[in-house]
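Entry: DUF998 domain-containing protein
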Amino acid sequence: MAPTNTTGALRRYGTAAGTGALAAFVLVAVGGCPAYVGWAGTHTDPNSAGGWYLRVLAWPAWRFDAADQAGGVLAADLRAILLVIFAAALLYLLPAGQAARVPGGLSQFFSGWAAYVLAGGLAGLVAVVLGPEPSMLGALQTAGKGGSYGLLTGWVVGTASLGGRA
């Protein structure tokens, strides 16, 4: 049985899931903000590795005004909202520290990264299905883009999960 009374150093740090969820929120808030999305679209070269990666960071784009999209702001921002919600839920559900053969930081890192990959794919899929113009092809394509986004940026969430208690 694990001790329930934490002392000293453990109280100073958050849980691995909590710090990972905070990192996911920051990635979506900064990478998806209208200022960054606009900058990445106009000031980066999509044919260079760095420019392409900076554009990938803008995948969970959200906006303040969605007058041009059916369904309003919620429909335009659904992907970003779902990404944060799914990332937080999966970070809490994936028991990295308890189920790992070798407990420690490496399992927390990969669990956080995997949670963000899954969250990106699920957010893309569900956002299209619940959006104003649902289609199976659009849902699958967006899920693929979301999974790619999670694969390429999930290391940030995995790193943030390091050092937190399980």
